[in-house]
Structure formats: C-alpha cells, structure tokens
Write a structure and sequence with these properties.
357 residues; alpha+beta; Phosphorylase Kinase, domain 1; Aminoglycoside 3'-phosphotransferase, Chain: A, domain 2; two-stranded antiparallel sheet; 12 helices; 10 strands; globular
C-alpha cells in the first residue's frame, strides 16, 4: 500500500519469512509457558511514523517514501522494511548498542561490501555518515538482500557458506577498527551467576564446568596462536540468504566483534550441520562446510588442535544467551526467545562425542 506504515508478523529482518533458529520446534511445556508470558508482556516496538521516515529519506539519496513495515522479530533492535521509489531497504533502530559501539559494526559491513562480500551496505546521508538518528535512537539503513534463508540446508548450501565465511575472514584481515566480541568470555563470566538460579543442579554443574574449561583454554599457547579478527559471530541459517541455491548475502552483523576465526566457524557448524533433535553433526553437511571453508583458507595447526574446544565455546555462548533472554528479558526490546535447551544438547554432544581433525 503506497504511503503506508504497517506492522508485520514475526518475520525475518531481511526476507519476511517466519524465523526459527535450530531446535526451535523442540519446545518443552515450561519453555512454552515462559515464552508466552514474555511475548505478551515484553514485545515492544520503538514506533517510527511516516513523517519520521520521510524526514530520514530527505537526508539520503534513496528515492521517495512508499511504505514502512515493522518487523516483530529480534531480541536487540527494532527493524522496519522501508520501501522507496528506488528499492527496498531495512531500517534498524538500535535499542542496546551505543553510538560509541555502533561504528565498529556499520563500518565492518561497509568494509566487507567494499571487498565484494555479499552483505548489506549501510546507506550514507548527504554528509557521508552511515550512523543515523531516528526517534532519538541511533539508526542505520541497509539495502534489503534478495533471496530467502535455507532453514533445511543441503551439503551444497553448507559448502557455499563455508566458502563465504572464509572469504569474510580474509577480507576482515584488513579491517582496522577493533572491538571485542561483546558476547565473549568476559560476558559469559558476568552472566552465568545471574542465570544459575534458574537451572537444575545438573545443568548448573554442566555450565560451571564448561565455563571453567573455557577460561582455562584461553590461557593456553594454542589459543594465543589462533588466527583472530573481526567476525560475524552469529551467522545462523536465518542470517544468510540464497537465490536458486546461490548464496546471495549474509546479514545481521550486530553481534560481530573481534574473536577467533575458529569460534566463528564453530557457530556456523553448530547451526548448519546438525541433527536438530540431538545436536549431533550430520556428516555430509559437516564435511561440506569444512571443505568449502578450506577451499579458501586451510585451518592452522592451532585451529585443528582446539577444534572441539571452540565448538564447545560456540555452543556455550548461545546456551548462556538463550537462558539470559528467556529468564531475564529486557524491556524495550522485540522479544523472540529461543529454546535454550537446544544449545544445552549441542554442548553435551560436543562433550560426549568430541570432534577431532
């Protein structure tokens, strides 16, 4: 509808289809009850009016306003589909990240786009700024990617993702800005005490044991030798787009940070290449992603030595964050809680059936 502002259902930030992370169908009754309670009481938009959208467009060379559709998904930011006479875009208002933190993410996306990596390119205003302001919130506008996410990826999809991830790592080598992964070890240590009261004794023991192990790993010489750089750190299946089985883009960079490349690879492997009910790796997809990655860059000896510990680290990160999002939701965020027990299963799989290269 021309000149309209709408609110969509729970849709992906780039494509408009329903979003499910790995294992989201494996709800238990307790999780469903908590999810319904929080969804009803905590899902909040920062509303953007048509007039505010038109004022924003007056600062950008993106054509005239056509429509604005709110996206009721996400746990950190407010997102809208913004359609103009020149194309389709995504408008993001940042609810938690600060103006001091945001340049790292936005310039990282621009850097990758300039290097030929298929990622959304932040749009600059007439003064060349890509960090904007809407409704008194820091904001950004990026182009909307073509295609759709493959939530049931084939080995071919996994191979393409492995290649693109390695290309992103190499392209990021020349990115000069630095900001630590804000959901890294420091945050795990800070957050664990807050979520422990919600866990069973066996869950608490698992979390504390794994956290102690990861703290030890990061003191080792092998960890120090791991290649590092700016990484996506959240390249789940629903954050990647395909057109006719060709990878068309990677988006949602707002959990990016400087971390090890093997952690970033572990995040992808733990989501793209597993049997959802058990968390175990599905061999054909697992090997396809590794082969795709190593067709661009070979893993180092340190990366091979710490391969399973980094898979465990990636599982622990999302188990902690999902527990935090479920039990301690934040106000003024768009809540889309995911089942934390899924990544508990993934972590237990990596503990009981370690992967070696």
């Amino acid at each position: 509808m021309k000149g309209s502002v709408q609110i969509a259902g729970t849709v992906d930030q780039q494509q408009g289809g329903c979003v499910l992370h790995a294992g989201d169908c494996a709800y238990n009754l307790r999780f469903i009850g908590l999810l319904l309670f929080h969804s009803l009481s905590m899902a909040v938009f920062t509303e953007v009016s048509e007039q505010q959208a038109r004022e924003l467009l007056s600062q950008l060379s993106m054509g005239e306003f056509v429509s604005l559709t709110g996206i009721s998904s996400g746990i950190e930011n407010t997102n809208y589909f913004l359609t103009t006479t020149q194309g389709e875009y995504v408008l993001t208002l940042f609810e938690r990240l600060t103006r001091e933190q945001l340049p790292f993410y936005l310039h990282f996306m621009k850097h990758l786009a300039d290097q030929g990596i298929p990622v959304p390119a932040p749009q600059a205003n007439t003064e060349g700024e890509i960090l904007l302001s809407v409704a008194d919130k820091p904001a950004a506008v990026v182009n909307r990617l073509a295609g759709s996410s493959q939530l049931q990826p084939t080995p071919a999809h996994c191979h393409a993702m492995g290649q693109t991830l390695a290309q992103m790592h190499l392209a990021a080598s020349s990115y000069e800005r630095s900001q630590a992964n804000l959901r890294g070890l420091t945050w795990w240590n800070q957050t664990a005490p807050d979520i422990l009261p919600f866990l069973s004794p066996s869950q608490a023991q698992t979390l504390q044991h794994e956290l102690a192990f990861q703290n030890h790993v990061q003191t080792t010489a092998a960890f120090t030798a791991l290649p590092t750089g700016a990484v996506h750190a959240d390249a789940f299946r629903n954050n990647v787009m395909f057109v006719d089985d060709q990878l068309s883009g990677v988006f949602d960079f707002y959990f990016a940070g400087v971390d090890t490349w093997s952690f970033d690879l572990g995040v992808c492997l733990n989501d793209w290449c597993i049997d959802l009910p058990t968390g175990a790796f599905e061999p054909s997809r697992f090997h396809a992603m590794l082969q795709g990655y190593e067709s661009v860059r070979l893993l180092s000896l340190a990366e091979r030595e710490l391969f399973n510990p980094m898979l465990r680290a990636a599982a622990l990160r999302f188990w902690i964050s999902r527990l935090w999002d479920l039990h301690l939701p934040r106000e003024a965020s768009l809540l889309q809680a995911h089942d934390p027990e899924h990544f508990e299963r993934v972590l237990l799989q990596r503990l009981h059936d370690p992967v070696t290269l």
